[in-house]
Design brief:
Layout (H helix, E strand, L loop, with lengths): L1 E3 L2 E3 L4 H17 L5 H16 L4 H6 L10 H8 L3 H12 L7 E3 L8 E4 L5 E5 L7 H11 L3 E5 L7 H12 L7 E4 L6 H10 L2 E6 L1 H10 L5 E6 L2 E6 L7 H14 L7 E6 L4 H21 L5 H21 L3 E2 L2 E5 L4 E4 L13 E6 L5 H5 L6 E7 L5 H11 L3 E3 L26 E4 L3
Parallel strand pairs: 5-6, 5-8, 6-7, 8-9, 10-11, 10-16, 11-15, 14-15, 16-17
Antiparallel strand pairs: 1-2, 1-7, 3-4, 4-18, 12-13, 13-14
Helix pairs in contact: 1-8, 2-7, 10-11
């Protein structure tokens, strides 16, 4: 299905709609600009209606639980729609009164200049479907900065995005000409190119392959805004044994996110050179992980089946080899969860779903190891002695990490946070100057 100018169309109308879209977009850009207050008011209304359970039945039809029993990730997404959050976000990322023209008198050159902040114009969003509400939220950010938004739905989208954005237009009809949603398959290159040609900026979410594909679509002069996949990890130093609440929080984080988010822990690092200390951690931490899994059984059938087959295959290999380890690599298995101790120190993707890598990383080797993943580092969950907190936080930032949190807050959102080291709203606007004449 397609959403264009506030109307739902069948996918078969895509070609005709795209052919006429340039004319609609140009007319919108020459019309009244979109007010940030108008956008925030509409989004806040949508969030309050969702929080009140108005869409619970529809959410269940889309494979999402009732809002009151959704996981923390989805409830957090609803909080992101509140007026308080959005106003704080705009003020933090852009500053107060950002959208008001400002008169300046440059030190050199012209006697007077007016600085105005227009939107980029048209944003083409290529989203992913691994996080509920993300496709809709990337459009929200485009609206907050006054842009016209073309959204290509991810193939895994279940209809929730179209529902949310259609409802947003019904709440505030002035948004109709600023939101276009297409369920275009990723292999429909011709349609993707048409959307890209209309765009002043291409906002792409996904891995390296998606980013490379978006670069091939971008016309010269179009701004490419990449929100790629990232790697996050936990770093434990000092007296981690005496911190049961923090270990509980880490286990809950691993199971709660199933390690599917960019901010999810993929590798647990121990500040040691000792393999025995790493094994000791695995033995101590596994019961915490198992308790978290017992409280949150796997509901994804494919994931559960894959884990069962993997465990069975590993057991057969162990029986045939007569050994539970390969070199210094060892597995510490629970039921539908596990820890995998490794000799190397490379940061890499784990097996997901509560199956986490554990490695050694002495602090004096931190830069050497982590910089091999430069550009991919996102969140570090830090547990250390109080006297080392500032030192290790600074080291992690210097290595390229963009967020340092406690173990249980690695995937938590907060108002005013940066996204992969940048304020996203700043990437969706321009700064223009007009000479004050006469």
């Amino acid at each position: 299905m397609i959403l264009a100018n506030g109307t739902i169309y069948p996918s078969s109308e895509q070609s005709a709609l795209l052919d006429g879209l340039k004319e609609f977009i140009n007319a919108t850009r020459m019309g009244e600009p979109l007010s940030v207050d108008t956008v925030i008011g509409a989004i806040d209304t949508l969030g309050r209606r969702m929080a009140a359970g108005e869409f619970d039945d529809l959410l269940r039809q889309f494979g999402v639980e009732s809002l009151f029993s959704l996981g923390e990730q989805v409830r957090g997404s609803v909080r992101l729609l509140s007026r308080e959050y959005l106003e704080y976000k705009v003020t933090t990322e852009l500053g107060r009164d950002f959208f008001l023209p400002r008169d300046t008198r440059p030190m050199l050159g012209l006697s007077g200049v007016k600085t105005v902040p227009p939107p980029l114009g048209v944003l083409f969003h290529i989203s992913v479907g691994n996080v509920d509400f993300l496709p809709a939220y990337t459009v929200v950010e485009g609206l907050l900065t006054g842009n016209i938004n073309l959204l290509k739905l991810p193939q895994a989208d279940n209809g929730l995005t179209l529902l949310a954005l259609k409802t947003l237009v019904e709440i505030e009809p002035r948004l109709a000409d600023f939101i276009y949603v297409f369920d275009t398959p990723s292999d429909d290159i011709a349609a993707m190119k048409k959307m890209a040609e209309l765009a002043d900026g291409i906002v792409v979410w996904g891995g390296d392959a998606a980013i490379r594909a978006a670069r091939s679509l971008a016309a010269p002069g179009a701004k490419l805004i990449e929100w790629g996949h990232r790697l996050s990890f936990a770093y434990l130093s000092g007296n981690w044994r005496g911190q049961p609440e923090e270990l509980t929080a880490l286990a809950d984080h691993l199971i709660r996110t199933e390690q599917l988010l960019c901010s999810s822990c993929q590798t647990i690092y121990i500040d040691t050179d000792s393999m025995e200390e790493m094994y000791d951690f695995c033995r101590i931490f596994l019961p915490y992980l198992q308790a978290a899994r017992n409280g949150r059984p796997i509901t994804e059938i494919g994931a559960a089946a894959g884990m069962t087959l993997k465990d069975y295959n590993d057991e057969l290999e162990m029986i045939l080899s007569g050994n539970s380890s390969v070199g210094e690599n060892r597995a510490f298995r629970g039921r539908n969860c596990g820890l995998f101790a490794r000799e190397d120190s490379e940061l890499e993707l784990s097996e997901l779903y509560g199956r986490c890598l554990v490695k050694r990383l002495p602090r004096d080797r931190m830069m050497t190891v982590l910089r091999r993943q430069k550009g991919y580092l996102q969140t570090a969950g830090l547990l250390c002695d109080a006297e080392d907190d500032a030192i290790l936080s600074e080291r992690l930032l210097r290595c390229g990490v963009n967020r340092v949190t406690s173990l249980g807050h690695m995937s938590d959102h907060f108002a005013g946070e940066s996204h992969d080291g940048e304020y996203s709203l700043r990437r969706y606007v321009r700064m223009a100057n007009v000479e004050m004449r006469g």
